[in-house]
Input
Amino acid sequence: MSYAEFVPLMNNKELNGLAQNRFLDEETQCAIASHKYLLCRQYLAENARLKPAARDILLAGKAVSVKWNLIRSGNLNELPDVIHSVWLETNHRFRQPWRVGYTFFTGSFSTLRTPNTPIETLKDIYLTYYRPRETIEDRSWRPEYWSIRLLDHPNLDEELALVISTSHMATLQKKAFEKLVALRKRK
Output
């Protein structure tokens, strides 16, 4: 049964509930993806069984939060180039340390899928975003925590681990060196 014809008639609460339903058909998902209500599109982007046609509609939109939810939920794992382009196109005001970490390193707790963030994106995040912030006195954003989470990403390579090991933070140096040793042992 398709709910696509009812999507324009639904209120926001109904749209949010429907967008989170894993068993929606493609037609209904596309109708929700085309809807103007942002929160239902954000929920749909996190749907574990998102169809490619609905994903493409969501990617074509302007909402950065929807695109970041697609990354975080693992719905763009087979498109690492798109993940990199979303990172590059994102306005710097949207890049909060916790949001970057959850989106590109840890992923969604509901889908248990780690984002397939390409190594060039991981390097850019660390070198242009986290590393310069390590010298800021305000530690409320926990730079060691997010850099250590970056070290746990499966796409991390030896080169980035080596760069992170040159940090001036002792705990980060130690963790990066341990990761570098582990990566070299795997070879």
